[in-house]
Amino acid sequence: MLYAICYMKSHENYKELIWVLAKTDFKLRYHGSVLGYLWAILKPLLMFSILNFVFSSLFNAKGNGIPYYSLQLLVGIIMFNFFSEGTMAGMTSLLAKSQLVTKIYVPRWTIIIASTINSALIFLMNILVIIFFFALNKFVPSFEAILLFGMFLVFTYIIILGFALLTAPLYVKFRDLSMIWEVVTSLLFYASPIVYSLQMMPEKIQKIMLLNPMAFVIHFSKEGLINNHFADPWKTFIFILTVLVAFALGTFCYNKFAPNIAEEI
């Protein structure tokens, strides 16, 4: 992790390049569509509307109503969409920008970071949706819960970036990775407490599920924002350590595979 930070500081002159690439990706993503940037908000809202219609009725019918279920569902969907879209964009970034990789010298990591920042920009737009729905329900989370949520957002981005650094060079050689990851993210969506509460699962299953960093992030983001309930400090420490180790692994693998990318595209 320290190596990665020092590496980035020694390349501060690439900040503008990263920002330009990220803005360009953001603009091109919705270029030509009638609704334009509104799709960044509409996509999770449509998914939320469908799942909320189905599952809120189901939970209430059983008499197991979850407090502010709609808000919990919305937070879970938007956070998982950030993870899903960010990892996919990061994985495919080098191949998508193959002309930059093969025709001119651009540090490969700038392309990867720009793609993940593009996903982060879309996520920031969706944060406004969360704020709107919390205001609509006249619900104000505690200051501590908001700080914890902000911390989880930062570590979610670190997860995305570490995954992108690991898989982007590999995807250039193994194109099947994107198909495999689509299936895996679909499984992870239902293996994370998004449409249901973690407490609905047996205690042993809960412990296994929380080994998944995104399940941990989503569960305790919902618990913190809605119920003002936080993870034990030691659990949070293990989560942070796991994320940083995974990021270090992604950085190591990137440095190992990156030199041969141009030849393999």
Would you kindly provide a brief summary of this structure?
The chain has helices at residues 2-9, 15-29, 39-61, 69-96, 98-103, 108-136, 143-173, 177-191, 203-209, 213-227, 233-257, 261-264. By secondary structure, it is mostly helical.
Total domain units: 1
Please tell me the overall pLDDT. Answer: 82
What is the gyration radius calculated from CA atoms?
Answer: 19 Å
Order of helices and strands: HHHHHHHHHHHH
Features of the shown structure:
mainly alpha, 265 residues, 78% helix
Please provide a written account of the structure.
This protein is mainly α and 265 residues long. The protein has one domain. 78% of the residues lie in helices and 0% in strands. It has twelve helices and no strands. The N terminus is likely disordered.
List the helices and strands and how they pair.
Layout: H1 2-9, H2 15-29, H3 39-61, H4 69-96, H5 98-103, H6 108-136, H7 143-173, H8 177-191, H9 203-209, H10 213-227, H11 233-257, H12 261-264
Helix pairs in contact: 2-6, 3-4, 3-6, 4-6, 4-7, 4-8, 4-10, 6-7, 7-10, 7-11
